[in-house]
Amino acid sequence: MEVYNWLSNMSLPGGQTPYDILEIRFKNSRKGFYRNTKNHSLHVGDVVVVEGSPGQDIGVVSIVGELTRIQVKKKSPGFKQAEARKILRIAEQEDIDRWIKARDLEKEVMYKARTLAVNLNLEMKISDVEYQADLTKATFYYTAEGRVDFRQLIKDMADEFKIRIEMRQIGARQEASRLGGIGSCGRELCCSTWLTDFRTVSTSAARYQQLSLNPQKLAGQCGKLKCCLNYELDMYLDAIKAFPKGDLKLRTDKGIAAHIKTDVFKQQMWYVYEGDFSSGLIPLKPERVREIIRMNKDGKKPHDLVEFMETAEVKEPDYTNVVGQDDLNRFDKMFKKKKPNRNGPGGNNKNRPQSKSQQNNKANKNNQNNKNKAAKPPQSNNGNQKPKEDRTEGEGVSAKKPNRNNRNRKKNRKKPTENKPNPPNNEIPK
Q1: Once rounded to an integer, what is the mean pLDDT over residues 302-330?
Q2: pLDDT digits (tens, 9 = 90+) for 381-399
Q3: Exposed/middle/buried for 271, CB within 10 Å: 0-12, 13-18, 19+?
């Protein structure tokens, strides 16, 4: 959690000494105020060695100058400058190497401490471990729903790690701020980036904002209600004051209508008739609702709430669609391909090979047609039909013209070839 020093480019009045209290940042979000008694020239980002309890610790300078005075009044109102711990020196390479070694041991020590807690059947969760830079002390952060007797655990950890043990209980929100993560909004958690004070969040904040009371969506990484539910709560409370109370029911000749929800942004209140949900939700403006309430107080009832509805005109955008980029279906025609009509003139059913089942069905159909033709008796002339007379030209009846297709078929007929004997090998046919 870095702080922007907006007083860095401002010089002090003449004769005033700079503020000798600096803010030092340690692992995660732990910070403290330390006194620069030796007047070291320190800037933001410098690594310094400070007094521990007991021993020495290493931290990074986060705020210097007059901005630290403002932070002290805000974060620690009862802070006494004379009792502040001191900054010993600027960290050397040996101090930094020892500090890095302490950070490397924290993960392994945390896993072993969890194993010891499970063996003792303690209902607690050790979420983080912070080693002091001189490797003489370790602080264990844990979360638990109730009080935990960890006296035996401290003895076991002291025998295992050979260091001084300090246990510190934190809440679920502090645990999430120390570990960090990504929220449902896609950004880094507020508690691990800029949020420092954790206010209580109740379900009434979700009710005022007309949110569904779904614990899976309202809960954050810590399992508690999201802190962001309080961000816009004051605005909703001020906006709801302009609306009539939702617990009042509207009486009409058609029936009694109950309030369902309020849309703060559209300035609408939604009502529905009790026992009759077929008419659906009826949106009304707050002024029209007050008018109906006054009529009910005077003993009058309107015929139907639909008469008080106001239809809002949808304004078209001022810009003109030049290239058609606002059409969501503009690419549908590009990816659609016409399927060939296989049964039509352009189909390929004739050239496609037929399956065995199709060939068997076709053969059975031909056999059935042949049987029907054989079973059908020939038609006999019982005198009802007149025999056809041979008509020739010159008897007053014009002869039928021969069909051209038949004529072409006769021309295309090939003459039967005679079986000629094969010539001998010596003779070459001409």
Answers
A1: 72
A2: 544 454 444 444 444 444 4
A3: buried
Q: How far is CA 318 from the centre of its chain?
A: 32
- Supply the pTM of this predicted model: 0.60
Least confident span in 37-41, 356-360, 423-427: 423-427
Of the candidates 46, 56, 41, the one whose C-alpha atom is nearest the C-alpha of residue 24 is 46
pLDDT tier at 404, thresholds 50, 70, 90: low
Residues 268/259, Cβ–Cβ less than 8 Å:
no
DSSP 304-359: -GGGG--PPPPPPPSS--SS-TT-TTTTHHHH--PPP-TTSTT--TTTSPPPHHHH
The two structure tokens encoding residue 97: 């190497």
Which residues are registered as beta bridge partners of 100?
none
Write out pLDDT tens, residues 222-250.
889 999 999 999 999 999 988 998 888 89
Burial of 279 (0-12, 13-18, 19+ CB in 10 A): middle
Q: Is 129 helix (H, G, I), strand (E, B) or coil?
A: strand
How far apart CA 381 and CA 88 sit, in angstroms, is 136
For residue 166, report the phi and psi dihedrals to the nearest 5 degrees. -130, 125
Q: Where in the chain is the domain with CATH 3.30.300.20?
A: 98-170
- Fill in the DSSP letter of residue 387: P
Amino acid residing at 173: R
CA distance 428 to 328: 81
Percent of the chain with pLDDT over 70: 73
98-170: CATH homologous superfamily? K homology (KH) domain (3.30.300.20)
